[in-house]
Amino acid sequence: MTGIVARRFLWLVLTLWAVFTVTFFLMRAVPGGPFSTERKLPEITERAIAAKYRLDDPLLSQYRDHLGAALRGDLGPSFSQLDYRVGAVIAEGLPKSLLLGGVSLLLALFLGGMAGWASALRPRSLLDTFVMGTSSLGLALPNFVIASLLVMGVAFPLSAIPVAGWGGARHLILPSLCLSLPYAASIARLLRTGLLEACSEDWFRTARAKGWSRGEALRRHALRPGSIAVVSYLGPAAAGILTGSLVIEQVFAIPGVGSHFVQAALDRDYPLAMGVVLLYSLLVGTFNLVADLAVLAIDPRGANASGGAE
Amino acid sequence: MSGKSKSVLAGTAVALLALAVLGPPGRTVPSGTVVVGLGGDPSSLDPGRVTSVRDGRLVRALFEGLTVADEETLAPLPGCAATWSVSPDQRVWSFELVEGLRWSNGDLLVAEDFRRSWLRLLDPREGCPYAHLLWCIEGARAYSEGRGDREAVGIATPTPTRLVVRLETPLPHFLALTSSFPLVPVHGPSVEASAGSALTAPSRLVSNGPYRLVERSLRERVAVERNPHSHRAAEVAVPRIEYLATESATTTLNLFLSGEVHWATAVPTTILTRLVEDPRLADACTPRPHLESAFYRVNVTRPPFDDPRVRRALSLAIDRRVLCQEITRCGEQPAATFVPWPAPALAVLAPGATPPFPEYDRSVAPASGGARHASEVAPEDWGGLLHDPERARALLAEAGFRVPGRREGAELPGFEIHYSASPLHQRVAEWLQERWREELGLEVRLRRSEGKSAIAEQRRLDYDVSRSSWVADYLDPMTFLEIFHSSAGPNRTGWADAEYDRCIEEAGRKPGGEERNRLLAAAERILLERGPIIPLWYGVTTTFVSPRLEGLGANALDQQWPARFRWTEERP
């Protein structure tokens, strides 16, 4: 197990370096600079700004300096939020994204888990058809449609629920519901499929033959192998949900980090774009590792199958 | 379901509930607070570094310059300067500061603060984007370009309350410049201590305006409260203003409809025509003339656009009345000139309002009217002045190209409309594509670029015809006309005209008056007759304002002075 963790950690470091390198050069290859605006600045001012942010250094020298600074934990000043450094931008937004994402993830697990379980309990029943139909709808409907429907159908009629903003628990209700629904739909479908697959195994039929009810047999024997797909899915899903969503943050005015993924690129804010891309990569890598370890804990045969002598 | 499953579910539900309750505590907006939907975060709160209208709204709350602009007429009124005088040759301005001015931390504010702040703006190492506003001062440009000495800049402080400024040449709008946001003073000790990156924390931002910073939360809000040290503290009626950084115009509208925002500075323009029919919004939304000119640039380095007849033909084929009524639909008025809002266009949108450049207005002649002055054109005729498809076809034929109804001439090569990604720009480009096809038989393609890429492509002259707009920096026709001087950075068309350049340069040396206006009007005529632009419309500002919020004023530069805001508890 320790060997797996060490190997994966090494891969994570290499991945982060690759992401850093690709992002660095891709951002600078895109036309338009961070300080180019409709009103062209005088040459002298443009040169002064370029010198101030060291944009006039040779590209490889910039790369070396930025990589060195990033290793020391300093991603530099933001080019769009001129009073902030990238670390401060992320430090302000990330806790809010984590809170909203955490609530949404729990909600998604709760709703998706309930729905998947109910479907697997009575496959091909009316309830199963309803749950699967609803989850298809949840997956198919874009976030902004769900968000708009919730604002119009819930927030405006019920004045206790704010239409947007940040500041209290009630501000979390609509955005977390909206953010969790597509994930809940995926979890429901994965769990149902996993449980039904387990139901077709010989040992499940043996359990039923011993007189256990379907629910009892599912819980005792099928839940563990049937939830492997959900646990694997939760790795990248958790990274996605915790780093926020552009649409949800825009519609509900959530001051998280989600919008920076798009806005930093549009603003050519190279350091901020780099910061959020590295953050996302780090979270994806970490959660994938956690998910894989969880899967190994559920089904230890995987460790041997992947060639681990550990 | 077994008891264990139930307990797992119950545990999850309790955890959810606990998170919701233990989440960030609910916040209430103090009574009397005015909430403004700012449309996004300010890029900075350092007046030397900011450029946008959005940033300017905050700077005007936090800082005060030598003068402040009247919220209706934009005339310079006493700000930090109580009085001022100018020498007979209009080159030396002397400002006497109000006695006993203080910063928000209680420090005394003296004339040297202005001198130091302006020199900081000019400092070549600072790279302040609006440094060129001060290039009119003696020695300022040389210092700003790294060629001159800081001490040679013509700003002096003979006494702690007197600031004397020597200009290179007389500048009619210099006094108005002193109310612009980059020219406010900044607190020297805090700027030096910050090393340029610590103006984020309320405790560190020392300002001299009617308000002081009390809260700044990125992508959430900036809150300001009455500055007790301001010499205007007694005049400030609204104790607290919160500027929400909400980016989405639709979300801001939702907040406005739910009463959580009192002034929405950005509105969803695509649905605006339907919104204004909503009785809840009818009183709140009034399009106001804005000193913005929307136009298309034509790349004159690419044939056939090197022929002015072709450029003019494209312009004459457009019925701008239809464009404004059916496509833009937010109150914009058809443009027959480049400098916006001449009297006839203004009369349609804001009857009785004073044109922004009344003196200039009398001397400018619409392109197709030849000898007529703008003020002599009836409002109902203005929109159609530049629409003459027959003449457009004749011009193309004269240039040797085939037009609908004629067999002679070469086929005009197809070309691209280049525009930056936005629903409005897309609709306008599609509409023009259709007009040019119908009226002139042209094959036009569309090329959409993302914002910064579009600017880079314009600078490289990598386009045929490209969307643009220009907003005034100051209240003078020169702010528009100077951008097409052959040496100007924003020209971006490859166009150079010696006579145009001469008019602009000569006008720049005049202290004002009729001769200067005549020169500028002559330049605009050249621009419209053989220049690289196709004027489209004069811009408007459309915002939603609660009827309970007063004192915003209505002016052509969309500038407000928060010290004048008034909040009425009951709807009038």
Q: Predict the CATH topology of the domain at 95-265 in chain A.
A: MetI-like fold
| Shape descriptor of chain A | flat
Q: What's the CATH class label of the domain at 95-265 in chain A?
A: Mainly Alpha
Instruction: Average the pLDDT over all residues of chain B and give the rounded result.
Output: 89
Number of strands of chain A: 0
Q: How does the major sheet of chain B shape up?
A: 6 strands, mixed
- Cα gyration radius of chain A (Å): 24 Å
Task: Supply the helix-strand structural class of chain A.
Answer: mainly alpha
Low-confidence spans of chain B? none
Shape of chain B: globular
**How many whole angstroms does the radius of gyration of chain B measure?**
26 Å
Specify the helix fraction band of chain B.
25-40%
- How helix-rich are the residues of chain A, as a percent range? over 70%
Distance between the amino and carboxyl termini of chain B: 61 Å
β-sheet strand percentage of chain B: 15-25%
**Terminal Cα separation of chain A, in Å?**
6 Å
* Tally of DSSP helical segments of chain B: 20
Structural class call of chain B reads alpha+beta
Strand arrangement in the largest pleated sheet of chain B: 8-9-10-1-11-18
Number of strands of chain B: 20
Structure description:
With 310 residues, chain A is mostly helical. Chain A has a domain of 171 residues: MetI-like (MetI-like fold), CATH 1.10.3720.10. Chain A has 14 helices and no strands. In chain A, helix 6 packs parallel to helix 11 and helix 10 runs antiparallel to helix 13. The longest helix of chain A is centred in the middle third of the chain and has 36 residues. In chain A, 41% of the residues are buried. The C terminus of chain A is likely disordered. In chain B, strands 8-9-10-1-11-18 form a six-stranded mixed sheet, with helices on both faces. In chain B, 31% of the residues lie in helices and 17% in strands. Chain B is globular. Chain B is built from 20 helices and 20 strands. With 572 residues, chain B is of the alpha+beta class. Classes of the chains: A mainly alpha (310), B alpha+beta (572). At the A-B interface, helix 2, helix 4, helix 9 and helix 11 of A face helix 1, helix 7, helix 17 and strand 16 of B.
